[in-house]
Task: inverse folding
């Protein structure tokens, strides 16, 4: 019986596999990097297991090394490690979605956060967490934003409660940069942001944040999140009910152009 065996680390396994295939091909990291359309420093970090690969990168590795899905399968394991068990399945689905609809009343949605704002939100909710764990989670959250900045991104539609603009996680300087980032995202053609103003109370959004993911050729999925937990909504009837809730919140929100004006006023006030 083998005692004290270290658990398998998916990031390390991915990196070891990448290094082994690179060495077998006779390439240096500097030679591999352009083949994967990444920097040499990122290639090094991937091999060392200090950066998580993206799905597109894993699939490109399979093409470059002519492997039959090896890196794609390892990527799925890295996703499971990068996120809490209750969020990992959602994170995989979010990567594949063609349309993302999100209602948030607590803070700026993770896909739109700056690193400093994300750090402040995480620290507020987990005051005893070790700094290195927080930093790892911040990096994973920021990396996840590639979903809406990549080529051919999904349509991402966010409805955000007005209170979020004035709840300054991390202080005024952090919030000022966060609002600038929000305005920049709002200018992207694939991103729609609407603010639900204080004056609107006739809506079902008080039950909490809600996300609906839509896919081409597959049924839609909903996701409801609470503190330290999350629940996928998968049956057609439940997804339809969740979408109806989201639609009612969205219908009560300000138009896109008016929302951008409000965001810019909030930026000036910070």
Result:
């Amino acid at each position: 019986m083998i005692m004290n065996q270290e658990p398998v680390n998916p990031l390390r396994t991915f990196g070891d596999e990448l290094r082994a295939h690179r060495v077998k091909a006779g390439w240096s990291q500097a030679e591999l990097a352009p083949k994967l359309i990444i920097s040499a420093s990122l290639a090094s970090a991937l091999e060392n297991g200090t950066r998580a690969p993206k799905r597109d990168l894993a699939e490109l590795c399979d093409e470059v090394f002519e492997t039959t899905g090896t890196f794609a399968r390892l990527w799925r394991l890295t996703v499971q490690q990068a996120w809490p068990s209750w969020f990992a399945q959602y994170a995989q689905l979010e990567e594949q979605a063609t349309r993302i609809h999100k209602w948030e009343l607590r803070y700026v949605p993770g896909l739109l956060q700056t690193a400093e704002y994300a750090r402040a939100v995480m620290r507020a909710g987990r005051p005893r967490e070790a700094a290195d764990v927080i930093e790892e989670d911040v990096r994973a959250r920021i990396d996840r934003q590639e979903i809406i900045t990549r080529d051919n991104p999904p349509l991402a539609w966010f409805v955000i409660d007005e209170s979020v603009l004035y709840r300054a996680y991390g202080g005024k300087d952090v919030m000022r940069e966060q609002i600038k980032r929000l305005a920049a995202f709002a200018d992207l053609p694939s991103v729609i942001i609407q603010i639900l103003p204080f004056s609107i109370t006739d809506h079902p959004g008080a039950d909490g944040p809600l996300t609906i993911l839509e896919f081409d050729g597959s049924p839609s999925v909903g996701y409801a999140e609470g503190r330290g937990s999350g629940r996928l909504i998968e049956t057609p009837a439940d997804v339809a009910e969740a979408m109806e809730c989201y639609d009612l919140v969205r219908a009560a929100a300000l138009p896109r152009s008016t929302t951008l004006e409000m965001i810019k006023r909030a930026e000036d006030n910070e």
In short: The domain at 84-269 is CATH 3.30.870 (Endonuclease; Chain A). Residues 70 and 170 are 41 Å apart (CA to CA). The chain has a mean pLDDT of 89. The longest helix spans residues 236-252.
